[in-house]
User: What shape does this take?
Amino acid sequence: MKIDSLIAKLHPLERKVLPELAKTTSFKELAKLADLTEIEVMRALQWLENKGALTLESIEDTFIELADNGEKYAKAGLPEKQILKFLDNTFKAADKLLKEADLSMQELNASIGKLKRQGAIEMQRAANGLMLKATKAAKEFLQTDTIEELFLQKEFPINESKLTKDDKVAIKNLSKRQNFIEKKKVKHVNIKLTNLGKNLSKQKIKQDVINRLTPAMLKDGSWKKKDFREYDVEINVPEKFPGKKHFVNQAVDYIKNIWIEMGFSEMDGNYVHSAFWDLDALFVPQDHPAREMQDTYYLNGKASLPEGKAHQDIYKKVKAAHENGAGTGSTGWGYKYSKDEASKIMLRTHTTVLSAETISKLKKSDLPAKFFAVNKVFRNEALDWKHLFEFYQVEGIVVDPKANLKHLKGYLTQFYKKMGYSKVRMRPAHFPYTEPSVEVDVYHPVKKQWVELGGAGIFRPEVVKPLLGIDCPVLAWGQGMGRIISAYWGITDIRDLYKNDLKQLKEMKMWVK
Assistant: This one.
């Protein structure tokens, strides 16, 4: 940028500060010479730094200052020297010295120890307490200045970087005494002109330039004779962070739109369900380890079960499926089904409970049908970098007499393609309520490796027939959303999705795919 063009864009504060930079780079002197407040000077310097005219370096210095006792004894002399002024070669009670030397008991005890080490006093115990007297060495000690006394006579504050070796020893000794020495950190700005700044500071800069047009100027026409500052459209401005949805909620909305665009209807439901709907209806055996307290959050009370003709005898059909297979071609789990176990109340462990409830409400005339859910589930997990006890799951079912495993892969491949993963594979797996069952992996474009994201499969007849009334293929999947979306923001610790750090929330990029 040309010098003339740059000068034309200078703010009035910059115009006042620039000429003074040729005389001094001291912050306080600049404020005085330019007749500005320190805040105005700092503002002008920051704008000039943005223009490349100078660099600002924040420097922190440590200064040594005297505290209350330090100032007191710098004038009156150290306590141990004051004590010697009131002692001679006869013993005197320590209590009497307290009043004569005007010392505290703490100061007296510290001074006695110091004098004893110097051999300047003798002590003895008497009926009326501790007795002290001066020795021959006391006179020499009294006449010799210690490094502590010499230090106390210096001019304060002292920059820590300018301390001598003796100064440091004195500070170490004085710091052991109460309220003698203070250390204070002081920040100041170091200003360094660039070649551009040096050139600018030598220019003749017009001061009477108008920064903004006022109604009064328009009214009286005086603006015609004024010189206006040019707008600087290239200047750096502070970054703004407008209000926006939490980035996880942005991802939730995006994922919901994917399934809606593919013709799916959304499922919804409560966080709290009976064990019957959450587990039994999905043919999870009642003695399955996942039902234990260490894996599941149970609540107090008992749930009512879907019994009677109004519910098409779903309870009886699910019970029979567990006990003997209920005509599905299976022998079931071969145990006596427990109504008490089915009546337990829990926080849902998966959104697949919504799939079970949805299937139970379908009629044959409703088929084919497709449903999805993106919602929270709860697991009694130990919290770490890859496990949460509350997290989102991406659930889906396709109830269609013509559906097969190829269709399942097609739906999931299309979903993950829209999520930024072009390669999807399925590996054989086992789940209590699907057969065949598969684990779904995607190829991570950054890590360059396959990453497991969730389970899928076709619901077993023991699940479908008691709920729907007929045996019909039902494609099903449940994917952990946290792992799917973390790569987009470069998150490696899944806890960072929900830590609600304000800086993170402000700076996190928007979800755009």
